[in-house]
Each structure stands twice: as structure tokens, then as C-alpha cells.
Amino acid sequence: MDEVKFRIAHISDTHISPHGNFVEESFDWAMKDINKLHPDIVIHSGDLTDNGVLTDYELAATKLRTLEPRTLVAPGNHDENNLGHSLFKEMIGPVDNELKLDNMAIYITDSPQPDRDEGRLGRRRQTYLEEKLSQLEKGTMKILVFHHHLVSVPFSGRDQDVLEDAGDILDMVLRHKVNLVLMGHRHVRRVLQIYDTVLVNTGTVSSIRTRGRLGQSYNIIDVLTDGSIRVTERNITAKNSSVLGIFKQNTQNQIPTST
Ligand SMILES: [Fe+2]
Ligand SMILES: [Fe+2]
Fold it and tell me: What is this structure's pTM?
């Protein structure tokens, strides 16, 4: 039986605010659940706050302190509203960030644009990531995190918010065999493997804006001793857990060149 080598709690779209759409009891339940599961790291893929305003950030900063593991947060489009960008940097952390942990390289990237729902990484960030990814030692596990989705997600209705430069970013991700891409934004959990890359969307932890009967949720992502990646949904509304998939790595599948 394979054991867990590294555990990530992947949360998103908490939409924390003293006004409106934030469901505090769901958030508090999830934070206790995460602390009990002892992940090595917590990664938040954006929409930490609902409106990007000072009172939202003050509450968010207080709420995040209830998490015991180290936590990294990527900004979402809601965090950028109302000049939220400056408060994010001041109270939460850098909007672009990177961390080396064991044999892992984690890149947090800033996909939103001020006061717009659409996201993009842009040429400069893409060039930077290309350089970083090509310099990593062989065998390093690569994890890329941004808020907007790279591939359309079901139950999204008319989908206009896929990363504007999704084609180029997906090409880069596949060429560099990025192991995991962690995203949020659609409030829908979804896992998809393309060649060796596992694309993970997680649902909303604590927004009232859930879809159909999906409820509020977050994901536990386990890297197992044989290198496979197991993604488990922890459903906050139903208080249950289900494995969304177990994905083998290093499949030797040939990736077609794009040029
Ligand atoms: Fe959201
Ligand atoms: Fe969003």
C-alpha cells in the first residue's frame, strides 16, 4: 500500500467578508478539518476576499491565522477589485511567489487584472516561468498555482474567463512536464490529466455561490511514495470525502511539439 509522501490542502474562493456572500461556519469547519489532516502545506488559489476592500482583508488575515500549516495564497479577481492588489501585498503576501520545499518547486502566479473578471499571465510572467522551469534539477516536482482556469470546467455556463493566454501557458506546462496545476475561480471541483500534468480545480470553501448541488468543498492532494498523485474532495456541505482520481506520473507519453 502506497503511503503519503507529501500532502497539500488545496483551498480556494473563500470570499471572506463581513458583508454578504461569506459563509463563516463553512470556512471555520474547513480550517478545523485541515488542521486535523496535517497537510505539509496549504495552497489557496485565489478569491480570498469577496470585494478586495480593507474590512475584507482584515477579516481574511485574522481567519487565515487559524490555519496551523504554512499557507500560500494566490490572488483572485475578487481580491483585485477596489485597489485590493495593494492590500493583498501589504496584508497577505507577494502576488507572485515561489517556494522550494523538499524536492518540490511551487510557483504562485498573479493571473487577475484590476477590476476585471478575465485573467492572463502575460509574456513577462511566461518568460520568467520558462526560465525557472528549465533550470530545475531533474526529478523536481513542479507545481504551478493561479486563480483562473487553464481548460474549461463543466457546470460553468457560458465560459468567458479561461486564462486569455491559456494556449501558450498550456503549451509551456506540458513541455516542462509540470506535475500539478492548481486553480480555482469557477467554484467547481474538477481534475483532468493531460500527458503527465494533473490539472486541479477546487470548489469554493465558503461562498454562498455554489453550483447546483455541488456544495462547498476543498481538495486534499497527496503525493504517494510511488510518485502518483491522489486528489480527494472534502465536501464541507455534505461532510463527506470522495477520491476524484489517482494519477500516475512519468508515463513516458510523447508530447507533440507545438512548433
Ligand atoms: Fe470565486
Ligand atoms: Fe474568481
Answer: 0.96
Output the CA–CA distances (angstroms, integers) from residue 252 to 177, 196, 235, 255, in the order listed.
11, 8, 34, 9
Residue 236 has pLDDT above 80, yes or no: yes
For residue 246, give the C-alpha cell.
Answer: 489517482
Burial of 1 (0-12, 13-18, 19+ CB in 10 A): exposed
The amino acid sitting at 190 is R
Q: Tell me, what's the pLDDT at 252? A: 67
Q: Which fold has domain 4-247?
A: Purple Acid Phosphatase; chain A, domain 2 (3.60.21)
For residue 47, how far is its CA from the centre of ligand 1 (angstroms)? 5
Instruction: Give 47 Cα–ligand 2 centroid separation in angstroms.
Output: 5
CB-hemisphere CA count at 13 Å for 232? 19
Give the separation between CA 226 and CA 62, rounded to whole angstroms. Answer: 38
Exposure string over 214-227, b if 16+ CB within 10 A, otherwise e: bbbbbbbbbbbeee
Model confidence pLDDT, tens digit, residues 146-205 = 999 999 999 877 788 899 999 999 999 999 999 999 999 999 999 999 999 999 999 999
Closest ligand to the CA of 211:
1
With beta carbons less than 8 A apart as the criterion, state whether 60 and 85 touch. no
Please tell me the number of the ligand nearest to residue 148's CA: 2
What share of the chain in percent tops pLDDT 70? 97
